[in-house]
Amino acid sequence: MKKIILIVVPFLLLLVGCTSAPEEETSLEIVQVEIQFPEKVDEGEEVVVKTLVTQGEEKVEDAQEVQIEIWNVEKGKENSLLLDAEHVGDGVYEVKHSFKENGVYRVQSHVTARDMHVMPTKQLVVGDLSQEEIDAIMESEVEEEPHDGGDHGDHGSHH
Description:
alpha+beta, five-stranded antiparallel sheet, 10 strands, 38% strand
């Protein structure tokens, strides 16, 4: 009987000790990022690109880093521009940028806040492009993605 008590009592103490520990105030909610810019943007116009950072209902005022990456789809992401956003309050971080030429652009926020890194991307059309022009640009972007690597044609030279 003494052996059972020697086994059960420490087990019960361990169990009680684990359940009575105070819970830490950590939020499991994901940091949400919303990119905002005007619907219509003209070539050469200075535009304010805003990033709204929230976690649940709370606006995040203490993000460690917020950067905005911008690139012209036709020129590729390797030619992107990375700008540090300024905190302007109420969970909003912003940059100002002038788009030098018409085209389709990608705007991507890189937000590091509360031990999370979030990188949403949004499309921006600069200038008066027709839907056909936009579609053609988007198709060219898809074609630039890596293929399966197989050679499906005869590219050798014959003399």
